[in-house]
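Duplicate of #3305? Posting structure anyway:
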């Protein structure tokens, strides 16, 4: 019975891990869902903060890509 547990537990962990990743993509969750909620929010300050975060994110991605080129 012990050998059975040693086989099943790692397989179960792997299955749960993969299933959770697939599920989140299927639901359209994460940043896309958050972006949709922010865009439909009536409060202007929330939308302004979102825009500031996106600008900062794009700046970080741009600097990261230029750092990659230098290496």
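Output from current build:
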């Amino acid at each position: 019975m012990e050998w059975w547990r040693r086989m099943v537990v790692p397989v179960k962990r792997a299955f749960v891990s993969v299933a959770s990743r697939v599920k989140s993509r299927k639901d359209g969750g994460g940043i896309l869902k958050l972006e949709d909620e922010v865009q439909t929010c009536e409060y202007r300050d929330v939308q302004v903060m979102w825009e500031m975060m996106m600008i900062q994110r794009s700046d970080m991605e741009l600097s990261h890509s230029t750092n990659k080129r230098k290496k």
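Confirmed duplicate; merging threads. The CA atoms of residues 56 and 62 lie 10 Å apart. The radius of gyration is 20 Å.
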